[in-house]
Automatic annotation (TrEMBL):
Residues 5-327 form the FAD/NAD(P)-binding domain. It comes from the Bacteria. This is NAD(P)/FAD-dependent oxidoreductase. Residues 362-467 form the Pyridine nucleotide-disulphide oxidoreductase dimerisation domain. It comes from Kribbella karoonensis. Keywords: FAD, Flavoprotein, NAD. Belongs to the class-I pyridine nucleotide-disulfide oxidoreductase family. Its cofactor is FAD.
Amino acid sequence: MLDVDVVVIGAGPVGENVADRVVQGGLTAAIVERELVGGECSYWACMPTKALLRDAAALRAARALPAAGQAVTGTLDPAAVLARRDRFTSNWNDAGQVEWLNQAGITLLRGHGRITGTRTVTVTHADGTTTTLQARHAVVISTGSSAYLPPIEGLADAAPWTSREAAAVQAVPERLVIIGGGVVGSEMATAFSALGSEVTLVSQTRLLPGVEPFAGGYVADGLRTAGVSLQLDVDATAVRRDDAGVHVTLSSDRTVDADEILVATGRMPNTKDLGLDQVGLAPGSWLHVDDALGVVDDAGNPVGAGWLYAAGDVNKRAMLTHHGKYQARALGDAIAARARGEQADLSPWGRHAATADQRAVTQVIFTDPEIAAVGLSAEAAAQAGLKVRVVDYDLGAVSGAALHADGYRGQARMVVDENRNVLLGFTAVGPDVAELLHAATVAIAGEVPLDRLWHAVPAYPTISEIWLRLLETDGR
C-alpha cells in the first residue's frame, strides 16, 4: 500500500492542476491515468481540433483583404494541416507531460483506478497487477467525459466517428455526414469543409442551440457559404454502412450518403467503473457537488464523509477545459488549506469557491465566423426571472472591424441587469471576436457598473470599439 495525502483519478488538465496545487500547498499527491497523461484536451479535443481549424481561418483572413488575397495562391494543403496537428499532439506521445509530472513532484500510476474503501483507491495496471493507494486527506475524481452515441437504428454497427476519431483523422474523407449541431458538430463542419470534404450536418434543433440565436444564425450562413448542407430540425432515424459507404436516413425521408459519419450529440460521464457503489452512488452517473466541489448525493448530503471530490466535466457544472482547470485550482488550494488546519474561503468570489461556473462561464466557438460568449444569454436571464435589457450592435459598423476585413459581418450583444446596471452576459459573433471575450469576462466577474465602463476607453481603431458603441446604444 502506498500512503499519500491526495489521490487524483484522471490525469487530464483538471487532474494535473489539482495535483499541482496540492503539491504546491505542501502535500503529496498521486495521480492515476489509464490512457495518456494530458487527457482529452491535449490529444483528442482542444489542441488538435483548433490546429485543424487554424490554417483555414488564417487563409480566410488573408483573402478578406484585397492585396493579401492576391498574394495568396494555391489551396489549403490537408497533409500539411494534419502534420501541424500531429505536432500539437506530440504524435499522441505523452512523454513530455509525464516529465512535467515528475518535475512537479507528482507520483504517476498508470492503470485504471477504482474506489475500494474509505479514501482508498486500487489501481489495476495493464499487466493485471494492482497497487493500493491510501489517501490521508482526499480523493479527487477528474475522469472527464466521453462522446454519447444516441440509440439510432444501425448506428453502433456503422463504425461511427466520435470527436476522438475526427480530431485524430489521418485522411480527409471525400464525404462526411455529421450528426449534431452543437459546438463539436459546427466546428468539425467548419474544419472538414475547409479541408475539402463534402459535408452534411444533421441537427434536431437550430444550429448551436446553447448560444444566442443570432450567433448561431451567422454560423449557419457561414457554413452554407462554405458549401455545407445543413439539415436542421431533422432527426437521423437509421444508419447503414456497406461497401459504398455510410447511408443515413432522415426524418424528412431523405437519405444522405457519405464515406464517414461523425456523431456529435453530447457527452456522458466517465464514471462507469470507478467503484462509486462503494460510496452509495450509481455507476455511470454525473457527480453532483457542493460549493466546495465535494461529492454529494441526490439529497445534497456529503458522500464519503467529506473526503471525496469531483472536478471538471464529470460534475457537469461547466464542461469546458478552462473552467475545469479553474475548479481544479480552487479545489487543490482548498484541500491543502484544510490539511494545514485552515478554513477554506468559500464566500462568494472567495479564493476556494468556484463561483464563475455559476455567473461567468466563458466559451469561444472556433467556427467561421467565431462566437465568443460569457455569462447569461437573454433567454437564460429571462428563464432565471431576472429583469434585463438587451443591447445589440452591428460589428461591421465598427471602424476597427471594417479595417480588419473587407465586408466584415458580425454582431455583439450585452445583457444588462436592470436593477444593478451591471453586465450579466455578452455574446459576439464575427471574425476574430475571441479576443473581445476577456474584457467582458472581467466586467461580469467584477460586477462593474455600466456607468464605470464608460471610462474604460477602447483604443481606436480596434474591434474593441464595440464597447463604446454598445454603451452609446444603451444610452444610460
